[in-house]
Write a structure and sequence with these properties.
Length: 336
């Protein structure tokens, strides 16, 4: 009978520890950690903030798998993630919002072992995104989902988001770096440590500002439906059948109000006029009230100018109209 090798109790413990270190391994699921971390990195992050545009991240979604394995004292991170980062933006002109848009930034295949520049990334507005449009028609297949042509302001906001692509990819890279640090028990660097001090914003010259304002005005005018001009023409023709005109949410500003006033001067059949949710300012309200107080639209019984861009002065002017034309109902519950 062959005897085994005799060892002391201390040697036996040392051999056990060495065996444990050599063969023991464990696996940790990191999916919940990734969802929390990507939300912290992206949510409420402002991508664009200028006098004319504002774009921010408002929601994140993460699918796929992520885990860390530890063996022989070495920790390795593995992941195959589908990340969707949702943005929303506003296009502004002269202090008011002329258009809003939403969309998504898609990283369909984030793999830790793949270089960051090889991760596919798509930046889309909702109108050109099949998965977003399918929400409007959940019964249809993704292949049958109809896309739509983007509005000009949607294109501008999407392109501005696209210009932030390097920053967005850098944040996704940081997510993987943070996952490695977390798995190794290392301290995660704060975002502020990766950001250079912000330089003072250069002042915009008057010529550049005028150019921006002209472009914004062209975008607004191009977005006005032909229906608006058709209705103004019918009002001017004093069509006796035309008793109610619906022009709410039509991007009407003081410019179109001037044309509308000219059409109202000799109209006697129009009874109700809805101009709610447009961009009429105090100046436009003043011109409109002056015309109505002077006898324009003699048959008008109700006018709605709620949720436009006039302020306290416009409200006072409308109060005077109520006094001068007691049979005319003026609806102006609030203004933007």
């Amino acid at each position: 009978m062959t005897q085994g090798i005799l060892v002391t109790p201390d040697e036996a413990r040392a051999l056990e520890e060495k065996s444990h270190e050599t063969w023991h391994w464990r696996e940790v699921d990191l999916r919940d950690w990734v969802r929390t971390r990507i939300n912290l990195l992206f949510k409420h992050r402002v991508l664009v903030n200028t006098d004319t545009q504002f774009v921010e991240i408002w929601k994140t979604e993460t699918y796929g798998e992520a885990f860390a394995t530890s063996r022989k004292g070495h920790t390795e991170v593995t992941c195959n993630l589908d990340c969707r980062i949702h943005w929303r933006g506003k296009l502004k002109f002269n202090g008011g919002v002329v258009g809003t848009a939403e969309g998504s930034i898609k990283f369909p295949e984030v793999i830790a072992a793949t270089p960051e520049e090889e991760w596919p990334m798509k930046i889309l507005a909702d109108g050109e995104d099949p998965s977003a449009m399918k929400l409007l028609n959940p019964c249809g297949s993704l292949e049958e989902t109809q896309l739509r042509q983007l509005e000009p302001y949607e294109v501008i906001l999407r392109d501005s988001t696209t210009e932030c692509g390097q920053e967005i990819r850098g944040l996704m890279t940081k997510l993987i770096q943070d996952m490695r640090s977390h798995s190794a028990g290392e301290k995660i660097r704060d975002l502020s440590a990766d950001q250079a001090p912000a330089a003072d914003s250069p002042e915009i010259s008057d010529s550049v500002r005028r150019d921006i304002e002209e472009k914004m005005e062209r975008i607004r005018v191009d977005g006005i439906s032909a229906k608006v001009y058709e209705m103004i023409a019918l009002i001017e023709a004093n069509d006796e059948i035309l008793e109610k005109v619906e022009l709410s949410v039509s991007r009407i500003s003081d410019t179109e109000i001037t044309r509308l006033i000219g059409a109202l001067k000799n109209n006697t059949h129009l009874k109700r006029l809805n101009l709610a949710f447009n961009q009429v300012t105090d100046a436009g309200i003043q011109a409109l009230v002056t015309a109505l107080a002077s006898g324009a639209a003699k048959g008008l019984e109700e006018i709605n100018v709620s949720n436009n861009k006039f302020g306290e002065m416009g409200q006072r002017i409308l109060g005077g109209l109520r006094f001068m034309r007691k049979n005319l109902k003026v609806v102006a519950e609030s203004s933007i």
